[in-house]
């Protein structure tokens, strides 16, 4: 999992969890499948489900505690 300080534009223009558009400086997280979400949104999601909310690809629980920050 990767944490960034600004989201990629395009393709992802909005977080599919909260449905808010990404703004410059928002902390975002990429999953291994390359889908991107607000950090707070995806962290809460992954506490309940170990799958990507967009593609349902499994997310390895070991990655949740050892993500790379940029």
UniProtKB/TrEMBL annotation:
List GO BP terms, alphabetically.
ubiquitin-dependent protein catabolic process
Cellular component GO terms held in the UniProt record: ubiquitin ligase complex
Molecular function terms in GO for this entry? Answer: ubiquitin protein ligase activity; zinc ion binding
Q: Does the keyword Cytoplasm apply?
A: no
Q: Which PROSITE patterns match?
A: ZF_RING_2 (PS50089)
The chain positions of domain RING-type read 15-55
| Xref: Pfam families | zf-RING_2
Q: Which UniProt keywords apply?
A: Metal-binding, Zinc, Zinc-finger
Which SUPFAM superfamilies does the annotation name?
RING/U-box
Its protein name is: RING-type domain-containing protein
Lineage, highest ranks first: Eukaryota, Metazoa, Chordata, Craniata, Vertebrata
